[in-house]
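Final report, Chapter 2: Outcomes

The project's central promise was a pipeline that accepts a single protein chain and returns its three-dimensional structure in a standardized token representation, suitable for archiving and comparison. That pipeline is now operational. To close this chapter, we reproduce one record exactly as it appears in the project archive, with the input sequence first and the structure output second.
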Amino acid sequence: MRIIKLNVGSNLIDVSKKIDSGNIREYIDLGNASKKQNDLIITIAGVLSESNYDFVGIECKYLFGKRDKRLEVVFKYDNIIYIVKISKQKKFDKDAIELDNIISDISQKHNISVKGFVLLTDEFNTDIIESYSKSMQNSIAFLSYNQFIEKYGIFNK
């Protein structure tokens, strides 16, 4: 358990333009001790914030449709914005479609390079995931939660 400081509530378009927005708040990172969605978000953002990314934030806002959509975890590296969605196999298809639509909207309206991740926290059928990933219009990777932390938490140190 540790206390970490994270950017919360930044506007995604501001992030792409390197404009400071949002607030810095302190959170308790429980690590692997909790499987609650909010705790997983804090742990991932905490791991990413220890690397040399240009930006790491949670609950970033993007106007999608008629309201602001809150994006769970966002990080920026090398002028590419990455959006992370945490899901379970039973609802990953809905989450992936929503993320794909958001990325398409951002890319078309703002000419920003965006990639996505859907992180699965439970056991999943690889064949189903691979088949589904081929239907995505945008660059969205499907990984287990732990694979993501191993790969993206340390690759940029």
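Archive annotation: Residues 2-152 form a domain with the Trna Endonuclease; Chain: A, domain 1 fold (CATH 3.40.1350.10).
This record, like all others produced under the grant, will remain available to the consortium after the project formally closes.
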